[in-house]
């Protein structure tokens, strides 16, 4: 697990095993990212946001977003003084975007390219 916000990529095969109970029959993890305690999974069917809550992280919220529900998204790259990059995803019916912060260790351009690949289908 990453410490102090250093996000990193997760091997898709590892994520496939770790989150097998959440996946539909034949659903495949294409890419995965660990963000402090949270995880973002890009499957061939949907975006899956895993949000560990509380001090112990035993309570977990799984947010499933079909790609067709994403109306638009934005990435904000890290700057000189602001070292974090952000991903904002707008889901139909919601005015407020889902926001995830990436620190050095994840290429925000790679995240954007993966999301583009699935949303554009």
Q: Element order, helices and strands?
A: EHEEEEEEEH
**Fraction of residues in β-strands:** 35-45%
Distance between the termini: 32 Å
- Tell me the overall shape: globular
> How many DSSP-defined strands?
8
Keywords:
about 120 residues; alpha+beta; five-stranded antiparallel sheet; three-stranded antiparallel sheet; 2 helices; 8 strands; about 40% strand; disordered N terminus
Secondary structure topology:
Elements: E1 8-10, H1 12-18, E2 29-35, E3 38-43, E4 46-53, E5 59-66, E6 70-76, E7 85-91, E8 98-102, H2 108-119
Describe the structure.
With 121 residues, the protein is of the alpha+beta class. The chain has 2 helices and 8 strands; from the N terminus they run βαβββββββα. It has helices at 12-18, 108-119; strands at 8-10, 29-35, 38-43, 46-53, 59-66, 70-76, 85-91, 98-102. A hairpin with a 5-residue loop joins β4 (46-53) and β5 (59-66). Residues 1-5 have low confidence and may be disordered.
Summarize the structure.
The protein has two helices and eight strands. It is an alpha+beta fold.
């Amino acid at each position: 697990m990453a410490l102090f916000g250093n996000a990193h990529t997760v091997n898709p095969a590892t994520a496939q095993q770790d989150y097998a109970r959440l996946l539909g029959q034949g659903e495949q993890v294409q890419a995965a990212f660990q963000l402090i305690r949270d995880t973002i999974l890009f499957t061939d069917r949907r975006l899956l946001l895993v949000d560990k809550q509380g001090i112990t992280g035993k309570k977990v919220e799984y947010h499933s977003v079909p790609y067709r529900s994403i109306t638009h998204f934005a990435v904000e790259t890290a700057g000189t003084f602001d070292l974090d990059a952000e991903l904002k995803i707008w889901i139909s019916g919601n005015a407020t975007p889902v926001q995830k912060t990436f620190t050095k260790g994840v290429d925000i351009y790679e995240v954007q390219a993966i999301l583009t690949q699935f949303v554009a289908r």
